[in-house]
Amino acid sequence: MKLKGSFQLYFAVGVMVLQLVTVVPYVLLLKNGVALVDVLLLTFAGYPLVTSMSAVLLFEQEKMANSFQEIRCYPKKYRLWGSKLVLSDCLSIATLTSTWLILGQIKLALVSFLLVVLLEHIHVGLTFFVDQTKNILLGFLEVLFIIFASNKALLNIYVLPVILPVNYIFQPNSLYLLLYVGYFILATCIVLWGIRRLDW
Q1: Helix, strand, or coil here: 156?
Q2: What stretches pass through the bilayer (predicted)?
């Protein structure tokens, strides 16, 4: 992943600036706990689209670089792709959690972090198996799930990984975190399987 001249970087910076100029002033003006949670859930609804776009941009950047020849020829391709994934994770985390850190909301930043990393791994994994359009369409579907979850309509639903961090806000339950870890490992395994497919 090359940051210089990267569309993924420009996209991330644009999203971060948009959040900083809208969310931060709004929360500071209202200073209301209910409004804070509402804004958090509203931003959560945008995370799937941001991470799906970020994953697509990362994949396309690597694909344009000699059709993954750099990765195919590298003897430690898993380490190389893993470093690219970690860098992409850090970029998304900085983009989507910085707002809550600036506001001093550590717990909300942590929940935001959990959702961002999970979504990033899910969508990066999917780029190996589905086309860009389907990946982004799944992002829209995840937005709907988050909207339903923000209305407490999906509490005690454990089969949808994207809603676990949202449900945890309303119902702190260690089972949500345990399942989150399982889904995160599964998403990471899908990424590794996708890297292996590059040799086929």
Answers
A1: coil
A2: 7-28, 34-59, 80-103, 109-129, 136-155, 175-195
Is the separation of the CB atoms in 6 and 53 below 8 Å? no
d(C-alpha 48, C-alpha 116), whole Å: 8
- Residue environment code for 62-91, b if the CB has 16+ CB neighbours within 10 A, otherwise e: beeeeebeebeeeeebeeebeebbeebbeb
The DSSP output letter for 171 is: S
The structural domains of the chain, with segments of one domain joined by +, span 7-197
- Give CA–CA dist 23/53, Å, rounded: 21
Angle between helices 106-127 and 77-102 (to 10 degrees): 150
Q: Measured between alpha carbons, how far is 181 from 177 in angstroms, rounded to an integer?
A: 6
> How many CA atoms lie within 13 Å of 128's alpha carbon, on the beta-carbon side?
20
